[in-house]
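Let us begin with a simple case.
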Amino acid sequence: MPVIFESPRDLLGKDGLELGTSDWTLIDQARIDGFAEVTGDRQWIHVDPARAKTGPFGTTIAHGYLTLSLVNLFLPQIIEVRRFSMGINIGCDSVRFLSPVKVGSRLRGVGQLIKAEEVKNGAIQSTVRVTVEIEGEPKPACIVDTISRYMPE
């Protein structure tokens, strides 16, 4: 269940708040192949299981940008902000890929509200850190600080 904020202003003063976790998501070869198809990144480490078996990870791995893109799946499971006229994805402050994601792994996002502030025209801008965990692994796959802006009603 996401942490619910009834309005963007309710984010203010909550810097550092732990937001909880998303559901686990399986990273199978079909998902990796689909990402390769839409991005054109068909490097063998991602899409050739036979060759990858003899590579550095012993299997195919997900693209780093596939892992990053899943943050869009995880965020609504972690945080829900209500009562705004429009939300804008501003981007990311930082992204770090810390561990490879082997095919067959399960990932989830863990969220923390890093900061929220009022910006021009009464909009509220928040930075949410999403740590993408790999089930059973000590190090996360990715840590990203996402920036969202909520325009007032």
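The second case is a distinct protein. As before, the sequence precedes its structure tokens.
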Amino acid sequence: MTYNDLEMAFTFVSSDAPGLHYAIIHRVTGESFYHSELTGENLFPDDADENDDYLVVPHKNDFDLGKELVMEFVLETCPEGYAHAQGIFSRRGAYRRYKDFLVEKGLLERWYAFENERTKAALLEWCEENEVVLE
């Protein structure tokens, strides 16, 4: 399995609220399989529940890569905007408003780099803990 394959599965799982999208990977072959509660389509192998070689790909919230990461970034880069950022996340549509806030502060590209770095570190640590070998 390549890092890009793992990242794609992670992005799928994390693209909506936890519990709506699932992905599993086979730790030996590197194959990935997907399921969405929204479509009802289940592409998991029949033996996935009984076979320890299949691992459930975590959601970004499992790694505190959601609101917690946002608040850490704002505190580090724009502490005067911390209260405003907290307010943004008290309503629906928070990420769109958060990105508008970042554009206004000139921090959008820096946020993407920060988020990607933390995501990669969390995924690589998860691979190590679960004995997933990446190409």
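The CA atoms of residues 120 and 133 lie 14 Å apart. The first strand starts at residue 21 and ends at 26.
Keep these points in mind for the review questions at the end of the chapter.
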